[in-house]
Amino acid sequence: MSGAPAFGAATEAWFDETFEEPTEVQRAGWAAIRDGGHVLLVAPTGSGKTLAAFLAGIDHCLALPPDAPAAVRVLYVSPLKALVYDVERNLRAPLVGIGHKAAALQGSLREVQVDIRTGDTPQKQRQRQARAPADILVTTPESLFLLLGSKARDTLRSVHTVIVDEIHALAPTKRGAHLALSLERLVDLCAQEPQRIGLSATVHPTDEVARFLAGQRRVSVVDRSTQPMLDLQVIVPAAIEEAIEPAGAPPDGSILGELYTRELAAPAERGNWPAIYPQLLAQIRQNRSTIVFVNSRGLCERLTQRLNELAGEDLVQSHHGSVAHEKRAEIEEGLKQGRIRGIVATSSLELGIDMGAIDRVLLVESPGSVARGLQRVGRAGHQVGEISAGRIYPKFQGDLLECALITQRMLAGDIEPV
Question: Residues 307-350: pLDDT tens digits?
Fold first, then answer.
């Protein structure tokens, strides 16, 4: 970990064996975190922000004496339940790896456990968490609010670090205002004010988000954002191209007759879908793994069904908030392992869920904002220095203008202010 602040021997040994070197945001982030103040980390998708925040917290927990009382010391807050489960799963590798290194270097080390608290957490687990809490608690803003109002709030008195992931998705919303109040309640509960670490890939301006993270307190902003590395195109369906062509001379005959003729000739499926479906299917077949983003759950299900009908096989599956957690995890693993070729998703996969190596992202309709577009296309090439490939398909003529404008601003990295 050359150039990074010193961690414990087991932590450093695991990191050096797993990674060649820290990324820029990790190196600068660890220095800021070691200073003890509140920190906002801003860097591209896949740059290791989450690991930067968690590794410092894990190392703090490992340094505690073996007989330290059970209590929550690292609190992770995510805007999405799906991201909560993903983070818990991704924490297993460093925790197990550091444990093995500790056994080899010094015989034993304090075991660090992880708990999940969401609306889906069974009552039996909640009772166990109140009696014997894990060092790391992964939760959502709503569950944190409920926890602070319950008898189990005493387990939070020892919180040392609060990590707010995807902070750009919370800052401008009512959920964000709700979370800000919960964080202040947590300060009143703890003997020592916890350190707050905010994480984001797409946030502007940073000073506004820093103020959301910690109020009037000083925040160290580690901004390692760069110009997006994108292979991005707007694909115009043939039906839209025809609609853009100048209209010819009006036909002879009555207007009512013309309207009746058009009604009889109308296709069974309205809109530009007959032109879009084959192009989406071709893109999915050309790549090993593809995510297709849409803006509603209903469209997600319909598009999945139609693509599979055209393909003559179960080529893609739906992924959205109404799909059970176990089913979503199965679908995610299916894409990673190559059992399916694509996923049709809503915002459930928009934020930092680890989807492995995604070859291409397809957006059906405008994403609605530059930040959302960058988050979605960033699912492809989810590694430092890789190019993210995306294709945007406008659904109708009016959508084309918005797609073109957002694409231009995405390529320039011109993110909207929160």
Answer: 999 999 999 999 988 888 788 889 988 998 889 999 999 987 87
Over its C-alpha atoms, the chain yields an Rg (Å, rounded) of 24
Q: Cα–chain-centroid distance for residue 231?
A: 20
The answer, yes or no, to whether residue 270 has pLDDT greater than 90, is: no
Residue 409 has pLDDT above 50, yes or no: yes
In whole angstroms, give the CA distance from residue 279 to residue 92.
39
CA distance 56 to 271: 52
Closest CA to 201 of 58, 373, 345: 373
DSSP secondary structure letters along 250-299? PPSS-HHHHHHHHHHH--SS-TTHHHHHHHHHHHHHHSSSEEEE-S-HHH
Query: Per-residue pLDDT averaged across 43-68, rounded?
Result: 88
Report d(CA 339, CA 319) in Å as an integer. Answer: 15
The packing angle between helices 9-18 and 49-62, to 10°, is 150
The span from the CA of 230 to the CA of 77, in Å, is: 29
Half-sphere exposure of 136 (CA within 13 A, CB side): 25
What's the whole-number average pLDDT of the chain? Answer: 87
Cβ burial, residue 384 (10 Å; 0-12/13-18/19+): middle
